[in-house]
Amino acid sequence: MGQGSENLAHIFHKVETQQCLAKDEYKASIKELRLNLLQLQAQARELSIPVVILIVGLDGSGRGDALNLMAEFLDPRHINTHNLWSPTDEELQRPLFWRYWRAMPATGEIGVFFNGWYRDPFYENALGSMGDEDFERKMRSISRFEKMLVDDGALVLKFWFHLTAKAQRERIRTYRKNPGSGFIVTREEIERVEHYSQLVLTAARGITVTNTTEAPWFLIDSYDRRFRDVQFLQNLAEGFRQAIEKKQNAPVHTTSTAPLSHWENTASILDAVDLERSVEGNGYAKQLKAQQKRLGTAAWKALEQGISSIIIFEGWDAAGKGGTIRRMVQAMDARLYKVISVAAPTDEEKKHHYLWRFWRHVPRAGFVTIYDRSWYGRVLVERVEELAQFHEWNRAYQEINDFEYQLVRHGIVVVKFWLHISHEEQLQRFRHRQETPWKQHKITEEDWRNRDKWDQYKRAVDDMVAKTSTTLAPWHIIPANSKRSARVEVIRTVSDALEVAIRK
Amino acid sequence: MGQGSENLAHIFHKVETQQCLAKDEYKASIKELRLNLLQLQAQARELSIPVVILIVGLDGSGRGDALNLMAEFLDPRHINTHNLWSPTDEELQRPLFWRYWRAMPATGEIGVFFNGWYRDPFYENALGSMGDEDFERKMRSISRFEKMLVDDGALVLKFWFHLTAKAQRERIRTYRKNPGSGFIVTREEIERVEHYSQLVLTAARGITVTNTTEAPWFLIDSYDRRFRDVQFLQNLAEGFRQAIEKKQNAPVHTTSTAPLSHWENTASILDAVDLERSVEGNGYAKQLKAQQKRLGTAAWKALEQGISSIIIFEGWDAAGKGGTIRRMVQAMDARLYKVISVAAPTDEEKKHHYLWRFWRHVPRAGFVTIYDRSWYGRVLVERVEELAQFHEWNRAYQEINDFEYQLVRHGIVVVKFWLHISHEEQLQRFRHRQETPWKQHKITEEDWRNRDKWDQYKRAVDDMVAKTSTTLAPWHIIPANSKRSARVEVIRTVSDALEVAIRK
């Protein structure tokens, strides 16, 4: 338990008043709230706000009943409740948050997460299986996750349904005596009552860390059923109202390149790349074969051991991404890999956070996913073409680092390539494409336009590498003026990474 | 084994020639095929043809190597190989074909299914765990499934890689001695060699039943590696070519209402509905409560027993679908149900068969999915508004019956409601909506347009009920001039259905 945390539980004092509400007063409030909520839901839907509601709290607090009341009041067609019981095997084979991402509401929809992403860490820390340091790290990472949703326009409201120890004991006793329809008090719940004070201290710490302006906590005094419901629905309505107001008054962001002007005279990391490297004649075929053989073997072994990998290809137009990917997959059994070519998002994808579509494709244990362009589009093309605003692409570095951290922590091998060619080499390749009949489709007006923005892209690449080359997922800048040398080096790098993971 | 099936295996004679191909000839053919295939893939992509390739055959036939060669030749960004190993628990909780539907390629993409949907029934029948009758039924249902894909514009090509018994034994022996990188001959495979003759007879029967013009089988003599690859790729190219030609020369279908003209003077099933039924004053509240209580209890029990249910609401505009659904979900814990309001398909959904979007949402074991409008839109609004062509909606009855059959066979409770009101009652409700400020948004120009087409809709409902009211999934036509009576009856019907399933 962290220092001074014994005193943290005082945050719950103001919801331990055991206040009650008379029936008449309840009925009047509820009637008004019902109408309000339905209207607020419709307004949020019109404004395309995705709403995330977390229902967390003590056993016996009746948070399930409160949830049912809310569900009854809102338009059921645009609300989806997720009770994430034990993870399925498809979920277990992916990073923890995959199950939350797949349940994330689209714009205009409401996603209710019963127990949210808090229950497990709360219990694990309270019962001692998760140390305090891990717990705090976990809470901070949850905070970043929630901030990311809010930054993207979501409304995140978190409710903690509280009871005093005495009230909880009584409540559980009553439930046991009068089991409602289907509602069962489990042995586990009864045992957990014994850990009331640990749990409440942990919750106090967790709530304190994660109670942010972006994703606030609402503490609900749950002693009296009527008082509980009214408080809950009032806070919910207030949360909706604030989000709607915020959205309506949102400042119009304009893209700004100012913060990066100091870069102009700075040397680029790309200038240091030795582009003269190449592989001589026969050496190429031999080296390529050798590396492909390594990769093919490693891919099968990775399957056996359940090690997934994600290989990302970014690089200049005509840098040879497609050809390199083809040489790479030649080495592997077709049942083991999947190539994802990142194009414009679909309309379902557009209704979610930009990382959602990449979470969708996180591979199951043992498989290889190859990205021909990737989530880095956010800080490359979307930045340069001003498709994302400054505050959007600027916060993406941290979001991407968090995402990759989760992948790597789950045991996924992440390898990132930037295929680098010189400005002159690109020109020659463009010309060659134009002159070769069956390559003409590979060169478009857009490629020439991108070429004109070479320096802006260069700056974006510098920022990207500087900000997202982490120990866990470093960038590999591959000199690619010689296609052959680039192919061999890429396949060697992937094999190295897989072999290291396999040996572990 | 069916009568005369002993002779069926002769279908394989022509691929037991053990023909070989010289290296030079192989190289020349392969080079040409490579170019052809890449072009054909691009053409199919331009024509938005989804391509389904099934790679099936005997162990040791090298079908995996052939698949890898194909994957190497085609554009890897638009091909996806599915080796459906043991089903995951998410798959086990849904009808068998859910796993194939979720892997189905979108238009312009290629989906390769290793072992397809044939391997399991072939082995089960050959090794005796699936009787001949079940096997034939299974094959016929597969044929209908494939026909459905093809009717929708897909190309379905099926390959059987064949070997003689002697050649298979030798091949497996060689593999065991020289295990390739990662390739392992399992004990299971060695044992299966003993069942060669049963398996080949079963395969012959299965292939004979499912070898249709729509989804043809290609038998590949796999004795010689080079001969095998060339045959395979040639047949593949030929399949592509024919599909492209067919698509380019496709007749322009025009919607025709002719086949149904004999209906004009026929009595409608809806005319026989007694619309005068109603529930008196206090009786309503009491009856509703009683039925809601039954439903709430049944929903928890269904969760315990892993029984899912799908409740479908269709009916006239203003028939009270929304209000009825709200009364229904009031009865259930919000964690147990999901309401899906069927709107226009998303662009991802448009790239698939119209049933794909419904397969996506098939609930996991124990949950309730409620559809506010459903797949019946195909034979109602899409028919009447001519959004689907005659041949499209006309074949949908059979497709829907097949779909629901799979749901029910998996143990899912399917309940279908048509909420029926009179033409006059609809007019009154429309007017009431127009006059009530907070109901005005519920009435649009489209509602009035639909109302003008009352008779056409009536005819469509008659056809729908006649053709899709099956023993397993009957239609319930609910008189709904009295909203109260309709609500009670709907909830009672659902409770009945759930209780019957729970008692089983």
TrEMBL record, chains A, B:
InterPro entries reported in the protein's UniProt record: P-loop_NTPase, PolyP_AMP_Tfrase, PPK2-related
Domain Polyphosphate kinase-2-related: from-to ranges: 22-241, 282-500
Transmembrane regions: none
BP-aspect Gene Ontology terms: polyphosphate metabolic process
GO molecular function, one term: polyphosphate:AMP phosphotransferase activity
NCBIfam families per UniProt: poly_P_AMP_trns
Protein name: Polyphosphate kinase-2-related domain-containing protein
Source taxonomy: Bacteria, Pseudomonadati, Chrysiogenota, Chrysiogenia, Chrysiogenales
